[in-house]
Structure formats: structure tokens, C-alpha cells
Amino acid sequence: MKRKIIPYNPELKERAKELRKNMTLSEIMLWNELKRKQLKGFDFDRQRPIDNYIVDFYCKDLMLAIEIDGESHIGKEEYDVTRQEKLEQYGVTLLRFDDLTVRQNLDSVVKEIEEWIDKNFPESSHHTLPGRITSDKKQTTFRRSRNNKVANKDAPRSKGADKNSPPGRGTNKSSPPGRG
What we know:
By secondary structure, the chain is an alpha+beta fold. The chain is 29% helix and 19% strand. The strands form three sheets. The chain has a four-stranded mixed β-sheet with strand order 1-2-3-4, sandwiched between helices. A two-stranded antiparallel ribbon has the order 5-6. β2 and β3 form a beta hairpin. Mean pLDDT is 78; it is low at 128-180.
């Protein structure tokens, strides 16, 4: 699927950068669920300029913007409606969540986003954790090793590794036990 290129005001780049450095608690909480393709394998940006606006989160592949309405939106309801209409003219869907809802019920917010994805992109419904979706859509499974580090179970083992040892651990007899 070819991505639609949406124009943006280059003068907003610096402001977006400032906003990324000064995220609210609810933005940080939701970002921790969206970053690194954790949500069904989709790549989200934070504080993304679109046209003359900056949205809290945006996924190009889904053409989905997510906004958290907190104190900065109080008294700006008319502006928000105009902004949403303009974004929709570009084909962008905007999901809005209340700041308090994100802080108190993050799981339901994430579930609502996942349900929107499943409804609008049913071919992506198999993109769920555990594991991450790679660019070729193959799901990679992860497991915890003895030292509690996450390891890719499909990764090749290091040279000289015992077949019973976790990936990346060799059989160096000179190392103390558990440090090989």
C-alpha cells in the first residue's frame, strides 16, 4: 500500500521537537505503548506536524492520528473541531482520548485503538504480541534467558555455543558459571 503524502508547515518542526521533549504524563504513558511498533506492528510518530497542526501521535500506514485532550484543549473546542475537519480532508482519522482516561485506564485506551485497527484494517488483526512484526510480516518470538535478558528464540547461536545454552552464550570454560 502506497503512503499518501500529506503536506505540513515546516515552521512547526521546531515546535514539534519542543513538544516531544515536554510530553505530559498521559502522552508518555500512551507513547510507551505505541513506540517501536508495539501496537500490532505499526509505526507511530509523536508530535507530528500535519498541514498547519501538530497531532500527538500519528501512524502513516493507518492514516490515524491520536489526540489526548488535556488542559491545553480547554476552551479550544471550536479550534479542535476545525482542526479535525481539516485533517479528515486529507483522509486522516482522528481518535480522541481524555487525559484522565489515559492515566486511569490505559489498557482500555490501547484496546480501543486496537479495535479501531482491526475494524478498519482487518488484514492486520494477526499482528499481536508476544513478538514484533518485522518488515516481511514474520512474527518474531522472544523469551527470557536465565539472566532475565530478552532473547530472540529464532536468532542463530553464537559460534561455539552449547546447543542447550541460550542464544549468544558460548561454552567458555574459563568464565565463572553463568557468565559464559
